Amino acid sequence: MIIELGVAKQGRISSPENDETTEIIERPSGGESIIYCNGKRDGQPCKTISSIIVNRVLEKIAESFRDSTALRAVSDQIFREHSGHICGDLCMISTDFESGTIVISRCTNTPVYFYQRGLFDSWHTNAEQIGAVKGLRPSITEIPIEVGTTIIMLSEGALNAGKNTLEADEVEDLILSTIEESSEFSADRMADFFLNRAITLDSYKPQEDMTVIVLKVCNDSPSCSRRIFLTCPVPKYQPFYE
Q: Residue ranges of the domains in the chain?
């Protein structure tokens, strides 16, 4: 089997930079973890906060903490330091080769969609934001790593794009039809599709930051190499010299 991860991001029209942070880390016992966070200070989005939260979680994962333990430890630390004024919507998706499972951890009310064994559903129970309370109880789900599995996370901005034109069940129908019709698409192509769809629904003027994460489990590849491919636009700036 081979794991594919695709991430696509877009900042809101009023800001050149996306305040959400997404990072990938190789797990000490084998596998990968991808962590997304939309950090907030007193309810307002903040790039610095999302970066701090994600990097603290990365440190715990690098120290071989289990996902749930890492999130609880970081949440308690942030709550002690800031008394709930700093928090974040967080989602972590891990492929744990030691247990042979995919672990989905949610500290957000935003759902995560999955397709496995012909079943399409979502994890959508309410979950506390990281850093918002003492004694965090993240929503944790664990499923086996199997060929054909697809997991999709849409941030709040991507999920609510065009909210005046699409109902929740229509969003789910769109995701399911895309999975079924695009089974040969790579994870990054699927992430691009969902992001472009969200931008279109917002009339090409994104009202909120948008992040899309897609994880796919595919058949064996002829290559055993690991690859990471990234494109990142450079914002316009005033050069120091001409």
A: 2-218
- Look at the block and give the residue holding tokens 């880390």: 25
Could you count the other beta carbons within 10 Å of the beta carbon of residue 44? 9
- Those residues with Cβ within 8 angstroms of residue 93's Cβ, 6 or more apart along the chain or in another chain: 33, 34, 102, 103, 104, 105, 112, 151, 153, 213, 215
Residue 239, pLDDT score: 57
CA dihedral 90, 175, 24, 58 (to 10 degrees): 20
pTM tops 0.85, yes or no: yes
Is the CATH number of domain 2-218 3.60.40.10? yes
Q: Give the C-alpha separation, 2 to 94, whole Å.
A: 14
Query: Are residues 10 and 206 in contact, defined by beta-carbon separation less than 8 angstroms?
Result: yes
